[in-house]
Amino acid sequence: MLLSGKLNKIRTFALLLVFLGVGVMYIGFVIPSWMVVFFILGLLTVCASVGIYFWIGMLSLQSVPVECPECKKQTKLLGKRDECSHCRAILSLDPKDAPDAPPKTVN
């Protein structure tokens, strides 16, 4: 569930950057002679993560909210094709990706 949908994948990457930045800063405490260098590298990594979070927030505002046909939960669709954030079903706004309707029977 953590990596389902484009928005969640980018958010997970940004969260990993935060942990990486804090880890790099911690290495600076282990090697005191390089403390300033590691602190600046860690700070740049955390700032990059903040930038990614801001960017994904702007994308999230522009995404289309839809109801998943399989789990009936509300999710956001980024682009023409995306996965449901809850059940990982493939969702699409493109009519050519729509499943074929069953033939109607005439009684």
How do the strands and helices of this protein lay out in sequence?
Elements: H1 6-30, H2 35-62, E1 64-67, E2 74-77, E3 81-83, E4 90-92
Antiparallel strand pairs: 1-2, 3-4
Report on this structure.
The protein is an alpha+beta fold and 107 residues long. It has one domain. Helix content is 50%, strand content 13%. The protein contains two helices and four strands, in the order ααββββ. The protein has helices spanning 6-30, 35-62; strands spanning 64-67, 74-77, 81-83, 90-92. The strands form two sheets. The chain has a two-stranded antiparallel ribbon with strand order 1-2. A two-stranded antiparallel ribbon has the order 3-4. A hairpin with a 6-residue loop joins strand 1 and strand 2 (74-77). The chain is elongated. The termini are far apart. The mean pLDDT is 86.
Number of spatially distinct domains: 1
Hey, roughly how much beta strand do the residues contain? 5-15%
Helix content: 40-55%
> pLDDT under 50 segments (min length 5)?
none
Report mean pLDDT, rounded to a whole number: 86
| Major beta-sheet overview | 2 strands, antiparallel
Q: Whole-number radius of gyration?
A: 21 Å
Given helix and strand content, the structural type is: alpha+beta
N- to C-terminal distance? 45 Å
Shape: elongated
Order of helices and strands: HHEEEE
Please provide the count of β strands.
Answer: 4
Strand order of the largest sheet: 1-2
Number of helices: 2
